[in-house]
Amino acid sequence: MKVTIDRSGCIGCGLCASLCPEVFAMADDGLAEVISEDPQYADGAQQAAEECPVSVIHVEE
């Protein structure tokens, strides 16, 4: 699984980290970051991508 975040468009809402804390966290700058690309969390990562209000998360399996 490959997970990317277009951090230039991230608004720091924290939804991704709430939905899938195994893959996403909020960095010190207040924006989301990818902390793991473990395939066992693909469903959670995909859900976060689908629910991201600014559509900056991309998941490739």
Task: Give the helices and strands, then pairings.
Blueprint: E1 2-5, H1 15-19, E2 24-26, E3 32-34, H2 42-51, E4 57-60
Antiparallel strand pairs: 1-4, 2-3
Question: Which descriptors apply to this entry?
Answer:
globular, two-stranded antiparallel ribbon, 61 residues, Alpha-Beta Plaits, 4 strands
Describe the overall structure.
It contains two helices and four strands, in the order βαββαβ. It is globular, with a radius of gyration of 10 Å. With 61 residues, it is α+β, with helices and mostly antiparallel strands. The chain starts with a strand and ends with a strand. The strands form two sheets. It has a two-stranded antiparallel ribbon. It has a two-stranded antiparallel ribbon with strand order 2-3. The protein has one domain (2-60): Alpha-Beta Plaits. It has helices at 15-19, 42-51, and strands at 2-5, 24-26, 32-34, 57-60. The model has no long low-confidence stretch (mean pLDDT 98). It is 25% helix and 23% strand.
Structural class: alpha+beta
Q: Please, how many domains?
A: 1
Instruction: List unreliable stretches of 5+ residues.
Output: none
Helix percent band: 10-25%
Tell me, rounded to a whole number, the average pLDDT: 98
Approximate strand percentage:
15-25%
Overall spatial form: globular
Strand order of the largest sheet: 1-4
